[in-house]
Amino acid sequence: VRALLHDPKVLFLDEPGGGLDPASVAKVEDIIRRVRDAGNTIFLTTHDMLSVDRLCDRVAFLLDGTIAVVDEPGRLKRQHGRAELTVTFGEADAPSVESFALDGLAENARFQEVIKTQALQTMHTEEASLSEIFRKLTGASLV
Fold first, then answer.
1. CA-to-CA distance for 117 and 88, rounded, in angstroms?
2. Which pTM was predicted?
3. What is the pLDDT of residues 76-97, one digit of tens each?
């Protein structure tokens, strides 16, 4: 709170959600968004890649004091994920799962059949998580 009193244009936060319960983390993230949306710059250091994904416009992965990569979270996830859509469908107690390439998905006859004739349970793109990308690019773990 003290760091925000003078309306800083640049704010450094180290593990702002560390040790907090989920409701408190959500409040802290709301404050961070408001400060960011007001045009201020925030440097956020954290191991919590879910918060990074929700809050950050750009991410830099550091390993032993060296920047391994700097980019937008969404672009990193698209670059390092698979261009596929995984669909879970059918009976809840015995679901079927199929993956479809995103390229040409609108013309994919099997995909069209599944979405027209099956009870859909979930559909997810196969983007990589920021934690997976960190491990891939640095060869290190976040813990």
1. 13
2. 0.72
3. 998 998 889 999 999 989 999 9
